[in-house]
Design goal:
Structural class: mainly beta
Number of helices: 3
Strand content: 35-45%
Number of strands: 41
Radius of gyration: 23 Å
């Protein structure tokens, strides 16, 4: 009886195994191209072979340059760009998104300026059966200065629309932000939505800030506030209805639920150039409304250029990853919704760079896991998955019937699915996600970097591949040793790290739950 009671207690226990930054302070991979003023970075499977590829847009406000794609070869990233665009431009950031629903993502690029600081246009390179066209076949009719753009479903019809942040702060070119609408896979070249106010915005994100089922638009200004244009389902407000109180030189934003209350919180990077604060900031979301003054700011300041949320230590919450011009990468770990003001990790000063963008993906797919999530009686068509920066959404079943790709759209970065049809009973989403993502960094002054994730590709002790280590893993291990289901991967059950899964692992596991040593990842190559 005593042993049964002990096992019962263990079933309710869970202990975090990963709680450290899994990157070397020195980059693992460097692009051969090092003088094109890299700016934008985006990760997706461009050629459909199951491995994530890396797109880089170049030029910024310095030179007219081509854009690049590094096509992954079965987990090995080439150092030299596999695809180089024929056209050149002063390009800002880029985004990959499958707006025509053919299974292959297109590359959208913000072009910041033209010669003489004149306005330019948005370009999209069509993806034809896994190969990006050499020159963009979609070009916006409107001209504007634009540094960033974002794919999202503005009207909830199940296809990707394109939001564009506009304006240029150095020369006080203030412009209306834009949306280009998608009509059954054909993207309008004329903007269908204009903000009524004009400004110089340097980032834009789609997010359901209130959890009402519609994607709202968040922009950040250089020399102004962060602001939200709410989506009312049948229309998007032309004036912002939420604004931060602190005007700043904002350069980057990202949103994710960092404290587990279900509502997306906002991180921002501000730049000290031209009088900005230079701080990294977090604005918490209180029941659907962002606070107007940040509750967290970094201890240090500087030329802040990038802020992103990702679960780098695989402990189930989103950490804050930031970068600066002529600076380092800083990682602030999430500790139950709170962050130290000083970073828990930073990259080596020997590889200081003008950081522009930081993105995440598992280039060798070694830690990808298949997921099948079922949502019963959802109240709206926007389905938010429990992870961000997904590897892929493979298929969706609506009320038990497989949906065609043109009936829904996705955001891999934000982890949502937008359906083009109402839900009567249930939605099943089949997707892939990695617990050990690599970190890619675009640099204005030197090569593109990749920091490979040093975690073993699984959580030691997570025998049932649930993402947590708890008593259910012990039960799974015991059942396996009795002839039951094989753990995936098997080495997750090698609790003592000796590369053999046997009864000794059960003993080690029991001791762990009583306060002993954590499960180990053995060197089992």
């Amino acid at each position: 009886m005593r042993s049964l009671i002990s096992i019962g207690i263990i079933l309710f226990l869970a202990r975090v195994v990963y709680a450290q930054v899994p990157y070397n302070i020195i980059p693992s991979w460097f692009s051969a191209e090092d003088d094109y003023y890299g700016t934008g970075a985006a990760i997706d499977d461009i050629n459909g072979d199951g491995y994530p590829d890396l797109a880089i847009s170049n030029g910024n406000d310095i030179i007219q340059a081509p854009n690049f794609a590094y096509i992954n070869s079965s987990g090995s990233m080439p150092e030299t760009a596999t695809w180089v665009s024929e056209n050149i431009a002063y390009s800002g950031h880029c985004e990959l998104g499958d707006y025509d629903s053919d299974g292959f993502p297109e590359l959208a690029v913000s072009n910041y300026i033209s010669p003489g600081w004149a306005a330019n246009r948005v370009h999209i390179y069509d993806n034809i059966d896994g190969i990006l066209e050499n020159s963009p076949s979609w070009i916006s009719s409107d001209t504007m200065h634009t540094f960033r753009l974002a794919w999202g479903d503005a009207d909830g019809d199940g296809d990707l629309d394109l939001a564009v942040a506009t304006g240029e702060a150095y020369n006080s070119f203030f412009e209306s932000n834009l949306i280009y609408f998608n009509n059954d896979g054909i993207l309008d070249t004329d903007a269908g939505w204009f903000s009524a106010d004009s400004d110089a915005c340097y980032d834009v994100r789609w997010v359901d800030i209130e959890l009402d089922g519609d994607l709202d638009l968040v922009f950040c200004e250089s020399g102004g506030p962060i602001k939200i244009y709410y989506n009312y389902g049948d229309s998007i407000a032309q004036y912002p209805e939420w604004m931060s109180e602190d005007d700043d030189n904002y350069n980057s934003i990202d949103l994710a639920d960092i404290n587990g209350d279900g509502y997306p919180d906002l991180a921002a990077a501000a730049n000290s150039q031209s009088g900005g604060s230079g701080l990294f900031k977090i604005f918490l979301n209180i029941d659907g409304t962002l606070e107007t003054i940040p509750s967290w700011t970094s201890a240090s300041s500087g030329f802040g250029s990038e802020a992103a949320f990702s679960d780098v230590d695989s402990d189930g919450d989103y950490d804050l990853i930031c970068g600066r011009w002529w600076g380092l990468i800083y990682i602030y770990l999430n500790n139950d919704g709170s962050f130290n003001r000083n970073p828990d990790w930073n990259s080596s000063g020997s590889y200081s760079s003008v950081i522009e963008n930081i993105v995440f993906g598992d280039f060798n797919t070694g830690a990808e896991r298949n997921h099948h999530d079922v949502f019963f009686y959802p109240t709206n068509r926007l389905i938010t998955l429990p992870f961000r920066q997904l590897a892929a959404v493979d298929s969706i079943r609506l009320d038990g019937i497989a949906m065609d790709p043109e009936e829904y759209c996705i955001s891999l970065w934000d982890g949502w699915v937008s359906l083009g049809a109402p839900v009567l009973d249930s939605v099943e989403v089949f997707y892939r996600h990695s617990i050990s993502k690599d970190m890619a960094v675009s640099n204005w002054d030197r090569e593109t970097y990749i920091y490979y994730n040093m975690n073993p590709g699984f959580i030691p002790g997570d025998v049932n591949a649930s993402g947590d280590v708890d008593g259910l893993d012990l039960v799974f291990l015991v059942n396996y040793l009795k002839g039951g289901q094989v753990p995936e991967p098997l080495l997750a059950a090698d609790i003592n790290g000796n590369c053999i899964v046997d009864a000794a692992d059960v003993v080690y596991f029991l001791d762990y739950f009583k306060g002993g040593f954590a499960p180990l990842a053995g060197d089992c190559d």
